Amino acid sequence: MTQPTPIRRVPGHLRTALDLAARGVPVLPLRAGKVPFANCSACLYTSCGGRPNMKTPGPCACPRPCHAWAAATTDPATLTGPAWTTAWKQAAAVAYHPGGIGLTVVDLDHADAVAWARRTLPATRAVPTTRGEHWIYQGAMPSANAVRDGVDVKSTMVYARWLGPGTGTMTTLPDAVRELVVKGRSPVRPVTVSMPSGREECRHRTPVYLERGIAMAEQRITAATSGVHATVYRTFLAVLSAHGRCGCLTDSHAARLFAAAQTKGETVRHCTDAWSNARTALGM
User: Fold this and answer.
1) CA nearest neighbour of 23 among 128, 162, 130, 172
2) CA 115 centroid distance within chain
């Protein structure tokens, strides 16, 4: 007598992830504490696009799924593949990349933040969280934490927990939310970076040459509308290549570049890593 084929049990979180992926939502598993799995050691502490071998932000060409938000995928073969078999068994939650589907999540972390949103922001789809609510708007934008007390903005290059579809009609991302990131962003923090030691004869002849190069680099970063991580790295690489070997480049020049990158949403950690990677690539 032929034995029936055993039915493979699908972990609950994986079942949720596959359902979301089928609807075009890029998803990934989270550990307890809302922490992503360390799938990709190369990207564990550096956002995708910030390393010399990555040309654009997003899922990298690693043999395993990338790390954190860049691991989010709609590919069922990746979600059910061997690289994530253990991850789904251990998963405590499902996360998704809001910016990947053109959404922005305003994460309201406590009752006062929710009350503020109800007074200030247009009503939209709301999802209850452990301590507050997620307000979801149609439209993507740069992400930022702590734009005010208990309020984070999650959209591009971050992940948010999937807590259900929520209730209410989703509305278009308002300017009031975009302005939160501009007004609420923490001041640019001072940076301390390792500067190249002068080993070559200076070819600048005049400070104007160096000043023009730094100004052009700032403009290149500021003008980036996509691929900011990659633009920052390539700009740092170009500046160090042109100005980094004679000793004319100073901490104040680096601080200007870091400040330009931070106004585009980059973290100090990413700037420092990109600077270090550029120096390594140039053998400095």
Assistant:
1) 162
2) 28
DSSP structure string for 82-102: GGGHHHHHH-SEEEE-GGGGT
Q: What does pTM read for this prediction?
A: 0.61
Using H for helix, E for strand and C for coil, what is the string for 131-167? Answer: CCEEEEEECCCCCEEEEECCEEEECCCCCEECCCCCE
| Planar angle of CA 227, 271, 70, nearest 5 degrees | 45
pLDDT tens string, the chain, 284 residues long: the values are: 445 434 355 678 999 999 999 999 999 999 888 888 877 655 554 445 433 333 344 455 565 677 778 888 999 998 998 888 889 999 999 999 998 899 999 999 999 999 999 999 999 999 999 999 999 999 988 888 888 889 989 998 789 999 999 999 999 999 999 888 876 554 444 445 555 555 555 666 566 777 778 888 888 888 877 778 888 888 888 888 887 777 777 777 888 888 888 777 777 777 888 888 888 777 76
CA 260, CA 89: separation in Å to the nearest integer? 42
**Two structure tokens written together for 75:** 């590919």
3-state secondary structure 8-77: CCCCHHHHHHHHHHHCCCCEEEEECCCEECCCCHHHCCCCCCCCCCCCCCCCCCCCCCCCHHHHCECCHH
Query: What's the maximum distance between 2 C-alpha atoms anywhere in the chain?
Result: 90
Helix (H, G, I), strand (E, B) or coil at 128: strand
Token output for 147: 């734009």
